[in-house]
Design goal:
Blueprint: E1 10-12, E2 24-29, H1 39-51, E3 55-61, H2 70-86, E4 93-98, H3 108-114, E5 116-122, H4 129-139, E6 144-147, H5 165-175, H6 177-180, H7 202-207, H8 212-216, H9 240-254, H10 258-261, H11 274-278, H12 284-295, H13 318-340, H14 352-360, H15 372-376, H16 383-395, H17 400-412, H18 417-431, H19 438-446, H20 469-475, H21 479-484
Parallel strand pairs: 2-3, 2-5, 3-4, 5-6
Antiparallel strand pairs: 1-6
Amino acid sequence: MARAIPPSRLRTVNAAPLNGRGDYVLYWMIAARRVRWNFALEHALHRARELGKPLVILEALRCDYPWASERLHRFILEGMADNAQALRQAPVLYHPYVEERRGAGRGLLETLGEAACLVVTDDFPAFFLPRMVEAAGEKLSVRLEAVDGNGLLPLSAAPQAYPSAYAFRRFLQNNLPGHLADKPQADPLAGPALPQLASLPQRVLDRWPAAWARLDATDFALHELPIDQRVAISATRGGSQAARARLAVFLDARLQVYAQRRNEPELNVTSELSPYLHFGHLSVHEIFARLAEQERWDFGSLGPQSKGQRAGWWGMSENAEAWLDQLVTWRELGYNFCRHRTDYERYESLPDWALATLERHAEDPRPYLYDLEDFEQARTHDPLWNAAQRQLLREGGIHNYLRMLWGKKILEWSRTPREALAVMIELNNKYALDGRDPNSYSGIFWCLGRYDRPWPERPIYGKIRSMSSESTARKFTLEGYLRRYGP
């Protein structure tokens, strides 16, 4: 049955009216790039059924977004191919558009918007997407509605940016239970039938043709596009099908030892779902539903205490609760920060104590100094750091524990903390499949003190928590990792 999504997840972007005489409802898919468990698609379908209009889904890929490369394009296009297959028999019109040259897609949204009753899009709090949505709202002649499907907690439910995981966890434990039952439909397309639109106008197709041939090509013809060809594709496949397969592997084989072994680089029992969450190929609601089913969990399992404790509140196994602290607390803490702080990627957004101690030690002598190219090419004196960087270069990610070490050493070996931050952002956003995301900004800025507390003072770091390759080697067996990611 058609239903309205929770009001807390809906935001009207502009003051333009709804056009009841329009030809269709348009869903502009920009962040939740999936057809299942998707609040925005569900809302667009609800609006279309309400108005008795067809639904058009526009999923576009521009070529001039920051750090555009073969690696990122390939991952996104694999998701678009999955969507094309899933929507082939659906009662909607799906228009996948891939920009062939810079600026070629300009005007497409406004043109489709002219014939629309309204436009629905995804609400995402980071990267260039907030600016793009606001600019679109100013240009469109019809109402633009943005839908938040980012986390279990609606972004609008938290009144402020929280300074620590503990503080945010306390807020979650007091407020999340009221939102857990509000989940998107697993298959929103299974509802009442819609009128169907046979095709977009020919003038639109002539100027902005659907990318069917590119999506059908084995290599997506990436070499033809004006993107960075030097960042090679990763072996990690994108799309919702690959995401669900990765989730099944984690739940079936890795979760059972997650709490005790997640920090061991050679075992790699982490979920590796962050790229799929970042590009919207998988919903956190679907992940939570699968986990709850496996744990035989229901709402009555939630603990009565809500004091910010990491374990015991969910009423699940030790391994499941350890993972939920990463998936929900830490991930959504980053989204919370980006929602409330437009300066989330600026050095000045660090807490006052961190800024003070970093500036006080900014001129401390460094034992080693490297520039961006040295870091990028893994040319440091430290074999473990170099191995972590090579993993990023080759695969598009670094083992979670080593990513913390990676950032800490960049701080230690850069001329200034500001330069270290610039290096971390550049390398992470250029090479990581899960870069450019609120969660990855949390990881980068944690290396400089965000969400942390002051530690005993030492050179270079000041009161920022330090890490070393030597202590990491004492904790874990690393021989296999070093061999795998050797020169």
